[in-house]
């Protein structure tokens, strides 16, 4: 176990590589991570002679020297590199070990390979501790190169491939870099709700969250097992009331004892209760509860319609208006029937919100954050980035470097439209017509960042007609203080704005846009009481992974992609 | 903007306090955080003479010296402490400024207060930059002490209170500490899915995710606006087919031109298509799609029933069986109609999973993680922890210290039951009967950790009958390699187990428990191909916040609590 007695913040840089070049540390198991060997400056050669335990899965294996031993390339997912492992035939059935996908845990001694070998160190196996075999005839992931599309049908095994495991490590690094960046700058992480009864600006189709189906199923089952009473049953039960009533009357007129009368009255009450219960039960109908011809959501878990969030922005604003600098980082959802390579039904968003800040502060924060992410990958994920450059997109490292180093170009929406119109005049063809007032299409955004400026571009001050009610109205009364960050490869990476903090202005914007005020009363309270200038933005986390890795399909940069017709596992 | 040119990992300890004692740094706005003044070792006194901009909300304000100036306690949420701000009457309407909840942004000069004052530094205001006023007659959060229960009805404003903002900062610290711990030990963060078609061990009631209601509503609206064709309409349209057919026949027998015949055939085709469409449309029925008397989920977004996850464990296992050390940290859901102070419908879970590891490694990891969290709070959240100790639970700091320093007691379930039976013999009364085979109740767990051992206790090797199918069967064939971490104040904080890696054993466990194998085929694949010993656990994040803060109700330690009947915002 690690020594955690030094203050935690001082330990952050430690990762798994010990500072002492001669010691390998196991992490909550007997084995050491392959990364802790390979990622040393000496590639592990300084560890020769050490006895260690290693675990991993065989990437490729081959027998050599007339089957006297086997060379196995072992990978444990801690880094892209494999450790070469040599097993002699007297240690285990080599035919088993050389199969791709076999799991192996071994004790052995690190040694320097013969001159001229690529690797800096290899492991000579003393003892095979564990084998998880693979029948190559049945294994869905043979050694041959598999397409990312094929792998989507094997989402539970695809993390065993070089590409998906590299993407996973890069995604992990981007997530930790995100938390580190905001922590460093004094932002508090606020976990905004997933289930919501608010709709952020009607940002698109929402998934509904319900227990109505399961409740209806339960009721249906119950009604089959215990059928509700028929009218005849109820009539019969009513007759019993009458009889019991007669009994009481008779006893009274016969001047029976108090006790006798009391007992008869109790029986009468029981009969009445029974009829009430029967009548109640006879009203039960199978199916989803209805009222006035509509679904009756008051019977649902939250006593009203509830949805999966499309953005945590409105909720996180309520925390910014108290704690100044906050951010949320969580899953968001869109129920759009979209089958493109850019859309998911479930995806992650990073949404910071800053109080006492205006649009320029927002742009500064967004630029610093994106640069920080790029620099982090260049510093901490070099091996995986090199893999992506070799196999997926040869420009990806250059792109990260350029974004990390180059000041972002900042232009107003009006300037952007003028530039696009100029381009059209000079012969550039766009599918979508360009004029002031349009929402920029992806082709326009990519032209600006990829062709015209060849660096990240921030477009700001958009026409109010194409933006949400909560964006701050500029003094020209035509535009709002919104901004989008455009980057090569993916186009829009970030969208943000200064929020309208003036109660009267936001109220008239809500009216102007024909929105009902009632659902936003709580949001308006933030302007009614101690209002503050504030701004924020949202970064689509998977878009950032696409940007970094050069992968084309967003379904390949999230562990378990959800899209129309598919929610495997 | 901050200088981000040094490698990110080297910057982590920076937070917002500059190392240079004479410089205050603004973070993406003109203002400096109050924390960056107050949290200095000198309490900010060394900054006297500096001109700065500050923003925040007035906690309390009072006029003094015959209304010549006002003293305001200003808080910006960056720390528990307020900064005392002094405004002279010629700067602004003091009657406005002294109202609790007023937002204020000011330029001023830091100065040393007169001797004998509690604060080390105060701000003399030069200029009032912004005021967000409050009408005290309407403000829902007056200065008087408010109960946490009252605040739950004002979830959008409650982060402005001392208690909820302190809880928010502690929760933020625990989240960052969690990511830091796993990063440090080489674990990769894997974001497991929120929407799922798997059910983790049938762990309780699940919320269903659907678009069926909104689709049905759309269809209903459409059918009102464009009523489906009647049978008579369709018959009339069929007549047109006949007419068009006759036209074609006539033209053919009249040896009309190819062109004329072609046009008539096209008309005929059109008429036929029209009938097909009308017939299709006439079949549309309002309401949720049904098939064979049941809801037809093939029409739903994911083409099957989909739910909100109750745990990411099964999915994260698929990553552990490729990348060795992984964890998920995300929202999980239970649709239980539970109104206790310990249950939420939406809550966050931390779930690490380690390959090449057994139950003891699991316990080591859990113990190291909990200790790390406690030490982190003691190091980094001292002021907020002191606030909780003063206002909520005077034992909370002692509890953190004890857990950070004391080795956890480890006992088997059998030993635990024996100890409880002993206690009963000696006169201890439990509501729930104790015998081997029972699931330990909360009262038993708290007795073990709070009374008997007075420190954290790990109970392991539980009877298989009360545990899930995926837990590894011990050699005694009666118990499984499960473990629970019990801590004072909350009882069970962590539940974990070694997972059954043997294909034959897990298959017979599935059969034994009467579970269908089909939904778990993907999970069984992890055992079929390259199986590995692995283990993991889950920590209920809100339970950890309860444990740390001493707050009693779980609804007060999550920003936006969800429970039966309530999903505000």
TrEMBL record, chains A, B:
The reply on keyword Ligase is yes
Give an example GO biological process: asparaginyl-tRNA aminoacylation
Q: Which UniProt keywords apply?
A: Aminoacyl-tRNA synthetase, ATP-binding, Coiled coil, Ligase, Nucleotide-binding, Protein biosynthesis
Going by the record, the broad EC class of this enzyme is ligase
Entry keyword Transcription = no
This protein's GO CC annotations: mitochondrion
EC number, as in UniProt: 6.1.1.22
* Name of the protein: asparagine--tRNA ligase
């Amino acid at each position: 176990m690690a020594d955690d007695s030094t203050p935690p913040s001082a330990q952050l840089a430690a990762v798994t590589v010990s500072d002492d070049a001669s010691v390998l540390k196991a992490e909550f198991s007997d084995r050491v991570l392959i990364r802790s060997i390979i990622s040393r400056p000496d590639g592990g050669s300084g560890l020769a002679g050490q006895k260690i335990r290693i675990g991993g899965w065989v990437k490729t294996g081959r027998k050599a020297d007339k089957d006297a031993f086997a060379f196995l390339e072992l990978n444990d997912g801690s880094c892209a590199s494999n450790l070469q492992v040599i097993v002699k035939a007297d240690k285990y059935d080599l035919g088993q070990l050389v199969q791709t996908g076999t799991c192996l845990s071994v004790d052995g001694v690190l040694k320097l390979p013969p001159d001229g070998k690529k690797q800096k160190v290899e492991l000579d196996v003393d003892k095979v501790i564990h084998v998880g075999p693979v029948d190559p005839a049945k294994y869905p992931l043979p050694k041959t190169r598999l397409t990312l599309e094929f792998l989507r049908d094997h989402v539970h095994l695809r993390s065993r491939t070089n590409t998906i495991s590299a993407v996973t490590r890069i995604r992990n690094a981007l997530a930790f870099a995100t938390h580190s960046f905001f922590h460093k700058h004094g932002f508090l992480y606020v976990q905004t709700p997933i289930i919501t009864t608010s709709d952020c600006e009607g940002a698109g189709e929402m998934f509904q969250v319900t227990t109505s189906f399961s409740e209806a199923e339960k009721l249906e089952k119950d009604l089959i097992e215990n059928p509700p009473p028929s009218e005849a049953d109820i009539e019969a039960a009513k007759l019993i009331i009458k009889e019991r009533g007669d009994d009481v009357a008779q006893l009274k007129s016969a001047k029976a004892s108090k006790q006798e009368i009391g007992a008869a009255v109790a029986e009468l009450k029981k009969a009445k209760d029974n009829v009430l219960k029967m009548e109640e039960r006879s009203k039960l109908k199978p199916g989803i509860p209805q009222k006035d011809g509509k679904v009756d959501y008051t019977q649902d878990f939250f006593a009203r319609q509830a949805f999966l969030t499309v953005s945590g922005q409105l909720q996180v604003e309520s925390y910014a208006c108290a704690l100044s600098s906050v951010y949320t980082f969580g899953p968001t959802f869109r129920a759009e029937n979209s089958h493109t390579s850019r859309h998911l039904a479930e995806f992650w968003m990073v949404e910071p919100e800053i109080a006492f800040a205006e649009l320029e502060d927002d742009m500064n924060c967004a630029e610093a954050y994106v640069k920080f992410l790029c620099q982090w990958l260049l510093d901490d994920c070099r091996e995986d980035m090199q893999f992506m450059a070799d196999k997926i997109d040869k420009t990806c490292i250059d792109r990260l470097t350029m974004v990390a180093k180059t000041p972002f170009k900042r232009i107003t929406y009006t300037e952007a439209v003028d530039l696009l119109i100029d381009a059209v005049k000079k012969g550039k063809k766009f599918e979508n017509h360009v004029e002031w007032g349009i929402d920029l299409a992806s082709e326009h955004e990519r032209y600006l960042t990829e062709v015209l400026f060849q660096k990240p571009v921030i477009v700001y001050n958009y026409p109010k007609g194409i933006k949400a009610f909560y964006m701050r109205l500029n003094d020209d009364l035509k535009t709002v203080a919104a901004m989008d960050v455009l980057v090569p490869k993916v186009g829009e990476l970030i969208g943000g704005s200064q929020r309208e903090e003036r109660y009267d202005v936001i109220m008239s914007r809500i009216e102007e846009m024909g929105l009902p005020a009632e659902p936003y009363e709580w949001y308006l309270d933030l302007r009614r009481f101690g209002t503050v200038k504030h701004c924020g933005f949202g970064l689509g986390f998977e878009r950032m992974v696409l940007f970094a890795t050069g992968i084309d399909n967003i379904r390949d940069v999230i562990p378990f992609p959800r899209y129309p017709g598919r929610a495997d596992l």
